[in-house]
Design goal:
Layout: H1 2-15, H2 17-30, H3 35-57, H4 62-101
């Protein structure tokens, strides 16, 4: 039964992608300066909800499971930080290149 539920949820997620793209586009158009903040808050809230749901369900092997959650969070934050750093670096390089060509 779990497999069926998981399959249905996955199919709904994939099939909703075009609608999510439209919603994303409308948010970007309506709030161009705050779009990144809005999406960041939405993603953060979803992650927080998933973490709380996981922690509430942990019954056995707590140290291993809490450690796994902590490790996943550390990896996620490290990835986000490296991506942000690379984006800033790329933006600076792009700006300096375009100012030198004019």
């Amino acid at each position: 039964m779990r497999f069926v539920v998981a399959t249905i949820v996955a199919a709904l997620l994939v099939l909703s992608a075009p609608f999510i793209g439209q919603i994303r586009s409308r948010i970007r158009t309506a709030f161009p300066g705050q779009f990144v903040t809005i999406v960041g808050i939405a993603v953060g809230a979803a992650v927080l909800l998933a973490i709380v749901a996981a922690i509430v369900r942990i019954r056995g092997r707590r140290a291993l499971r809490y450690g796994s959650i902590a490790g996943a969070l550390v990896l996620g934050f490290a990835y986000a930080a490296s991506l942000a750093r690379a984006t800033r670096k790329s933006t600076r390089l792009s700006a300096s290149t375009s100012s030198n060509t004019g």
